[in-house]
Amino acid sequence: MIYEVLQILVTELNIYFQQQIPNVPDDIVVLDNIALADSESETANNMKNKVVVSLLTIDEESTLRNFPNQSRVNNQTEYYNPEVNLNLYVLFSANANEYKESLLYLSKTIEFFQSKNVFTQNNSSYPDNLFIYNPTDYFKFSMELYTPNFEDLNYIWGTLGGRQFPSALYKLALVTIAGNRTVNTATTINETGSNMTPNF
Predict the structure, then answer these.
(1) For the whole prediction, is pTM greater than 0.70?
(2) Is residue 195 part of a domain?
(3) Which residue, 27, 49, 76, 92, shows the most beta carbons closer than 10 Å to its own?
(4) Does a structural domain hold residue 166?
(5) Number of domains in the chain
(6) pLDDT per residue over 40-95, tens digit each?
């Protein structure tokens, strides 16, 4: 689900940019690794004059760690390992040809998430085949602006290659990852009773 939710953000942002800024390319927002922006690769060329969406890191939502995960099939209860609920830290970097354009792109990105910060299957646009590998009938995640301090910001960009782009960091919560591998089964108890005769 990590790729899928990030691709939803890319699709939605591209639609918003086309509505807000005249003559922008259809793919003004791309999903890529901003750390490669200064490399000599083809990937770097694809990130020029774009808003680059990059996954910075993830963490587990610990408050949901121990929820039971089970389902009933006929008269059997199937048990699974608990779902993994993730928060994604997503960096939106404006890599425009001119600095003023980068600031415009960054401003429009923040403006978009100010107007829409909760995404579901009912209010989001995405490619028809997006969930081909992770079929789902329901998703919901939210976006919250996350502001690192200057020391953390310096460390982030040092890790990403040194050159800093106008950017905004968002916390995306929650992405649920669950396999369908059964770890145990048990017969469902449908009634209670006792055949023991009391001794008086």
Answers:
(1) yes
(2) no
(3) 92
(4) yes
(5) 1
(6) 888 899 999 999 999 999 998 877 665 555 556 666 766 666 778 899 999 999 99
